[in-house]
Each structure stands twice: as C-alpha cells, then as structure tokens.
Amino acid sequence: xxxxxxxxxxxxxxxxxxxxxxxxxxxxxxxxxxxxxxxxxxxxxxxxxxxxxxxxxxxxxxxx
Length: 64
Fold this sequence. Notes:
Layout: E1 13-23, E2 26-36, E3 43-50
Antiparallel strand pairs: 1-2, 2-3
C-alpha cells in the first residue's frame, strides 16, 4: 500500500518523525529522519537519535 494523504509526509523529500518510548518505566524522546518518495510509496530511514536522559526532550535533527 501507499501512505497517500499521510499528513506531513506528503510529497518528496526529507521529513522528521518524533518518537517516544519507554525504557525501565521512563520515557525517552527522539526523532527519525525519513526520506519520502515522490509518489508516497516509499519511506527510507536516513538517521535517528534519542535523548538518553529520562523524560527530557530532543529537537528534531539534534545529535548532541
């Protein structure tokens, strides 16, 4: 399938997806940098990062 009309992922280019997950009862926040194809039929992961300190945010694209 495709993700046509998929919110902020419409059209070709690089996009960021914010993530939150739990490790040992603490939230970790991060991002995944994606490439979206012209026809919205392919997503490719380019990079990712997360803040290792519990319950602290990270800006999209931040690596330090």
